[in-house]
Every structure is written in structure tokens, then in C-alpha cells.
Amino acid sequence: MARKVSEERAKMLSGGFATARKNIYVQFGGRERDEAALLQSIQKKLELAGVDDDEIRQVNVYIKPEDQAVYYVVNDKYTGQIDF
Questions:
Q1: At 62, is the secondary structure helix, strand, or coil?
Q2: Sequence-ordered list of residues with C-beta below 8 angstroms from that of 79, at least 6 positions apart, any chain
Q3: Which residues have a Cβ under 8 Å from the Cβ of 29 and sit 6 or more positions away?
Q4: What digits encode the pLDDT tens for the residues 16-35?
Q5: Among the four residues 17, 70, 78, 81, which has the most C-beta atoms within 10 Å?
Q6: Average pLDDT, whole number, for the chain?
Q7: How many Å apart are CA 59 and CA 79, to the nearest integer?
């Protein structure tokens, strides 16, 4: 068992795609938005709507730059949109 744990830890420390820091940017019409800023905006809208952070289990995000909008569905229950 100890050997398996050591192998898994070595993989995590060695890097690779799965453990690499990732930054996602959406560019459209001369504008750019990054994933972290979009998720932070969605989180703020949910807080204002009274959604408790502890109850959030799933967040689906649909980025539609042609509509200048980002749509989201949380827990298959709460929906909304923010500006792109």
C-alpha cells in the first residue's frame, strides 16, 4: 500500500497536464474575459440571489460572446446570466 501511495505522490509532484495550472481566456470582438473573473461574477450573482455557497454542487457555464452574455445553471435549479 505504501508503495502505491508513493507512486501517486510522485506523479503529482512531477507535473504534467493534470496537475498543471490552467488559465482559460475567451476572446471575441476585441474583448477578452478570463475564466476566474467569469466564475467570480457568477458567484456574486448567486450570493445576491440568496443561494448558500454550501449548497452549490454543480455549475454549468455557457459562454456566448455573440450574444455578449454568459449563461449559467447551478445544481440544475438556479439559472441566470452575466454580461460577457
A1: strand
A2: 71, 72, 73
A3: 65
A4: 888 888 899 999 999 999 99
A5: 70
A6: 89
A7: 10
What does pTM read for this prediction? Answer: 0.74
Question: CB of 26 within 8 A of CB of 65?
Answer: yes
- Tell me the CA distances in angstroms from 59 to 11, 24, 31, 75, 79, one per residue in order: 29, 16, 24, 6, 10
Please give the grid coordinates belonging to residue 82.
452575466
Amino acid (one-letter) located at 1: M
> What is the Cα–Cα distance from 31 to 70, expressed in whole angstroms?
14
pLDDT tier at 38, thresholds 50, 70, 90: very high
Contact of 71 with 42, CB cutoff 8 Å: no
Specify the DSSP element, H or E, that contains 40: helix 35-48
